[in-house]
Amino acid sequence: MREIVFDTETTGLSPAGGDRMVEIGCIEMIGRIETGRHFHAYFNPERPMPSEAEAVHGLNDTFLSDKPRFAEKVEDLLEFIGDSPLVAHNAGFDFGFLNHELGRCGRAAVCMTRMVDTLTLARSRHPGAKHSLDALCTRFGVDRSQRVKHGALLDAQLLTQVYIELTGGRQIGLGLVAGYGAGGAPSTAAPASFAARPVLAPRPHAASAAELDRHRSFLAKIVNPLWDRLMAPTSPPSAA
Predict the structure, then answer these.
(1) SS3 letters for 78-130?
(2) Mean of per-residue pLDDT scores for the chain
(3) Non-local CB neighbours of 104 within 8 Å, separated by 6+ positions
(4) Catalytic: which of 89, 150, 205, 215?
(5) Taking burial as the number of CB atoms within 10 A of a residue's CB, which of 34, 72, 121, 213 is the most buried?
(6) pLDDT digits (tens, 9 = 90+) for 124-146
(7) Total-model pTM
């Protein structure tokens, strides 16, 4: 099954209040294994960057001034994500900004049924623990030493590893356990690599006459075997 793990960076917290997406990073997975394909883009938000947001991700007005507007890259983004489930941490936030940007350029919103929220998964599997991306990286031993500031592509790469651990660990890539579909629902579909394997004819398993002779010769060499004692006929009880 193909899935897209993604993250966004924005000018603030409220698309309805005028905040815009300034970066998106997407990682492709098939059968819960990273393929190496990704989509990454910065966007000119056509508004000033608040200092609070810049402190989080480090993206300023000068850097973003020559970047394309979202509408200029929307076709490439939609082609990359296709109709695959979309995995994000606190996914409602990222879906909110993605769908707001799609609406601004006259495109249909991404259906919320495609959303897989790793925050919800983490809360259900580790109630009472810390569930930030940093905390989950620490819990699962994911190296986040490069995460000095938030970055959409880097965070998506970290989240990919966290998601694998949240859904069973690396053995999922070996097809040992069921995967998860949209919304975190279990899926029993086999990875494409398994489906493509040829079916081998069953190997013969009946012993040959020579093998049976060797087996009888081997048994004959055993002194006082246990099975002879167990199978020996018992004497009927004597009459009183």
Answers:
(1) HHHHCCCCEEECCHHHHHHHHHHHHHHCCCCCCCHHHEEEHHHHHHHHCCCCC
(2) 86
(3) 70, 71
(4) 150
(5) 121
(6) 999 999 999 999 999 999 998 88
(7) 0.70
**Is residue 150 flagged as an active site residue?**
yes
DSSP label at residue 212: H
- At residue 92, the pLDDT reads 97
Do the Cβ atoms of 10 and 21 come closer than 8 Å?
A: yes
CATH H-level superfamily of 2-194 = Ribonuclease H-like superfamily/Ribonuclease H (3.30.420.10)
Q: Are 26 and 37 in contact (CB under 8 A)?
A: no
H or E segment at 161? helix 152-166
Residue 186 β-bridge partners: 180
Instruction: Tell which residue, 123, 129, 156, has the closest CA to residue 142.
Output: 156
**DSSP label at 172?**
G
Residues of the chain predicted below pLDDT 50: 172-186, 188, 190-191, 193-194
